[in-house]
Task: inverse folding
């Protein structure tokens, strides 16, 4: 029973992780990264922006994903 609940949670986390990763913008700045831009207000406060929140959610979902994957592969649930 517990294995079934963990498997369902694992599938929900997998789907949520895919959606959040696809919602993020590309990190490719092209030739703009060569100009050595000065930090802007947006870069300094990136954690408060939508993109910063998506990065944080991705990190948390990634950790949950790996923990559930390890727990589901333990021999105690076999």
Result:
């Amino acid at each position: 029973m517990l294995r079934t609940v963990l498997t369902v949670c694992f599938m929900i986390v997998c789907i949520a992780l895919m959606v959040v990763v696809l919602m993020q913008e590309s990190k490719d700045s092209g030739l703009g990264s060569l100009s050595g831009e000065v930090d802007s207000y947006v870069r300094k406060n990136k954690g408060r922006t939508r993109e910063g929140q998506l990065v944080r959610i991705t990190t948390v979902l990634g950790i949950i994903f790996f923990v559930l994957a390890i727990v589901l592969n333990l021999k105690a649930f076999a």
